[in-house]
Amino acid sequence: MAYGLARRELAPRVPLRPGEGEKNHLTSLEGLSALSLDALSSVAYGPEAIVLVLVAAGTGALAATLPITLAITFLLAALVVSYAQVIAVHPDGGGAYAVAKKDLGATSSLLAAASLVVDYVLTVCVSLTAGVDALASAFPDLARDKLPVCLVGLALLTAVNLRGVTDSARVLMLPTVLFIVAILGVVVGDLLRAHPAAVVGTAQPVQAHETLGLLLILKAFSSGCSALTGVEAIANAVPTFRTPRVRRAQRTEFMLGGLLGLMLIGLAVLIRRDHVAPRGGVTVLAQLTAGAYGDGWAYYATNLIVTLVLLLAANTSFGGLPVLMSLLARDHRLPHLFGLRAERPVYRYGVVALALLAAALLIASEADTHRLIPLFAIGVFIGFTLSQLGLVRHWATERPSGWKHRALINGTGAVLTTLAGLILLFTKFLEGAWVVVITVPLLMLLFSRVQRYYTEVGEELGLGRIPDPPAPRPGSLVIVPLGDVSRLAQHAIGAALALGDEVVCVAVHSDPDKSRALQEAWARWNPGVRLDVIDSPHRSLVQPMVEYVRHAARGGRQIAVLIPEVEPRHRRYEILQNQRGLLLATVLRARTDVVVCMLPYRLRV
User: Fold this and answer.
1) CB 256 within 8 A of CB 231
2) Collapsed DSSP state (helix, strand, coil) of residue 530
3) How much is the pTM?
């Protein structure tokens, strides 16, 4: 005791970096807004995908929308329960790639990685095209320029993510809440009306050219399964939750399942009751919105909210795919440059790769949402199945208390997702699913070839083994290419003398008079190093210099070529400088084994 105060142990407080500490982790509600937009926003295109298939059998077939949606909701419930198990077993993030790599082996992890790459790229494309569809429902003039608008949106997302502006859960809460309230308001408002408040879009003739048989129902089911994308996102990001992380993540997963199931069933009830068929210029969701709110300000506001949420859902891939590519680079399955992070920090190579792939797919599909959906869900269901099979393998290996019951849950999920995936594959094969069937094996081949290359390089370099002591070599020689006596020459020679035992300057000239003038100036200056002048009658600079360097490197002598390069103060003047030094460095690296160094001389003008 001193002056009436108890003695306290003082510990230094280290300031936390951004992203550290419980305050920066997610609550359940924040996790719902940050990680569920991909899944929740799928109600904008999932029910419409069912309608577009069923209408082939006439408007009477639209009554099957509800039972098909109930089947999809049952599958959703099985997935939510199964992913709650994934969260418990993999509290460090249970992505399909991590689960497959740990529990199923190398081939399965390659399959999971390839399917996830396809899924992330298609998430961007489908979210952008569906968002523009929603926007065009409110502003029809945009429908003619759908592809350019999608590409502009993609460019905006790319620029934002290259700058390293990350999503904040608190910022996303407002659009998420507005979206949920708007969709549930559509359901409740439409159910309270005896007939739609307004009808939007242009009528299109509906001609039945198929019967409502098993094949058509299976096709509608497979199309509607696109509404299940994004269910796994919470399990992938368990470490971002506050403690107790597992319980909060599981609670968020169940909240997502309940909200998504409620919205899907509610919209299906409205489609069945009002026989909502496709109309020109508007989406099915826009028709239901007009039926509930009319065609006034609430209609426009809801379509804008849907567009914003779909744009934010597309942005989730920019947070997911670059991280996945960095993991693949760490496992030597992609070029190591994908593991490089900028100062912000951002995996910029991954962001650029995602943008280029998404742009190519948007152009190839002409930004048609319904041409992309058959490709969309197959990759998702591959990931679903691998995650569940990995958990079954985990339970069978670890055998904790009650493992059989847990294995039954995940086994049931695996069977259901496998069946759904096979239905998707066979019913959508000719509509574009064949692209995924080709792309996924090609990506797996790419990953395995890159990994094999890195393995062979590691063997050749002897990584992980202690090498023999280095053998002594003759003294080093630094070669400095120069053109004239100047401060640049003084700068280069000073640096070269600090690097090597011997320094020689080399000049290539085609004019004998200029060559003689250079030698006289050199004799007057007398910098203390030798000058070799090479005559080049054909005015070639690079080839004579390369031959000189090759000759000097004979006998195993260590050679360094120091190339001085003028750097202007302002980048706009770079085009005024000759690029001979850069060209010489490129050729020397390609044709010799010498050390090539670029020495900048920074101008003040």
Assistant:
1) yes
2) strand
3) 0.77
Partnered with residue 598 across adjacent β-strands are: 563
Confidence band of 471 (pLDDT split at 50, 70, 90):
low
CB atoms within 10 A of CB 208: 13
- Torsional sign, CA 453, 458, 461, 462: negative
Residue 401 CB partners (closer than 8 Å, separation 6+): none
Architecture of domain 2-455: Up-down Bundle (1.20)
- b/e per residue, 290-307, with b = 16+ CB within 10 A? bbbbebeebbeebbbbbb
Q: What is the DSSP string of 280-303?
A: BTS-HHHHHHHHHH-SSHHHHHHH
Region 183-211: mean pLDDT is: 80
List of residues 6+ apart from 545 with CB closer than 8 A: 481, 506, 508, 534, 584, 588
Predicted confidence at residue 360, as pLDDT, reads 93
Tokens of 514: 């200029």
pLDDT digits 0-9 by tens, 33-46: 877 888 888 888 88
Q: What are phi and psi of 484, to 5 degrees?
A: -160, 165
Closest C-alpha among 219, 283, 225 to residue 53: 219
* DSSP 3-state percent helix, strand, coil across the chain (nearest 5): 70, 5, 25
- How many other CB atoms are found less than 10 A from the CB of residue 336? 13
- In the chain, domain spans: 2-455, 476-602
* Span 346-393, pLDDT tens digits: 678 888 999 999 999 999 888 888 788 777 777 778 888 888 888 888
Q: Quote the pLDDT of residue 259.
A: 93
CA distance 181 to 494: 71
DSSP string, 198-211: ---SB-------S-
Query: Long-range CB contacts (< 8 A, 24+ apart) of 602-605?
Result: 602/567, 602/569, 603/566, 603/567, 603/568, 603/569, 604/569, 605/568, 605/569
Given CATH 3.40.50.620, say whether it is the number of domain 476-602: yes
Establish whether domains 2-455 and 476-602 are of one fold.
Answer: no
The 10s digit of each residue's pLDDT in 5-38 is 444 444 444 444 334 444 557 788 888 887 788 8
Contact 234, 256 (CB under 8 A): yes
Q: What is the DSSP letter of 213?
A: -
Cα separation of 154 and 113, whole Å?
A: 23
The pairing of beta strand 477-481 with beta strand 530-535: unpaired
Say whether 598 sits in a helix, a strand or coil. Answer: strand
Structure tokens at 301: 């506001």
